[in-house]
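Hey, I'm writing a tutorial for new members on how sequence and structure tokens pair up, and I'd like a real worked example in the thread rather than a made-up one. If someone can provide the structure for the chain below, I'll link this post from the tutorial.
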Amino acid sequence: MAGFINVIRSTLAEIAARDDVVPAILPAGLPDLVRPVVQDGVTLLTEFQSPSYAQLYCDRLRRFVGKHGLDDALLGEIARLLAIRMSYHDAIRIAQMKLHEPVTPGRVPVVDVRRFRLDELVSALPEIVGDPLMWGLERINCAHRTVPIRFSRASFWGIKRLELESWLRRWRLLSTRYELERVWVERWLHMIDRALSKRPDAVEAIVQTATMIEGYGTGYRHGMAAWHQIIDGLAKPAFDGTLVIADLSGAINRARAVPRDPKGDQLRKVIGDIRAHAVLS
């Protein structure tokens, strides 16, 4: 209920032109090399959601500033990838990007048509609305059906629709998709922390696993599933001490390079091979 009250407040503030304008406060002690990366991330996430969401980004980064074993370049990479993942591509985000797309005078804007799964569209709605709809879609076996969505600035009504879709960002933080992303981001950051304390040689490989998850639709889902396979099958057991892999970084990178398939069979086979040559305890 508190979440809905906050959304209603922010919506009324936007209508009254008194939107949340308090800028995010960057983490203290940011190295000069990293500061521009974080500032870019704050700008991106303020547009994606709000200044308070950009502040969450800064708060998440703060735990790594001055961390032993983390150089400026790798901290900058964490900052860059964190901003990308926190600005994930749902239909609302694509509408936002289309709305801010530069227009060449005299040239008709390009119409983008993207295909989304119905469960993906429903997951972007507040849970109180999305959960019953998802139940209904699953009951009639339509949850995985894809539908084309047009994103266009070619007409007045096309622009108005983009503005409406962009406005729906107010409800994004109450959605199932946001909760999924929140849990993933926190686990990724936790794995970086564990790598720093348990296997510093594998920190960079863990950081780069974030690149496995991008876009939307089937590719996004396969990437998310593959990421969990690698973390659960290689990284976590290595950090727990139940699996000894001499070259953990190389093992993770080898697994990341496996082509995606719907059931993850190829990756499962590669992870099994790596584990077979490791030392179990």
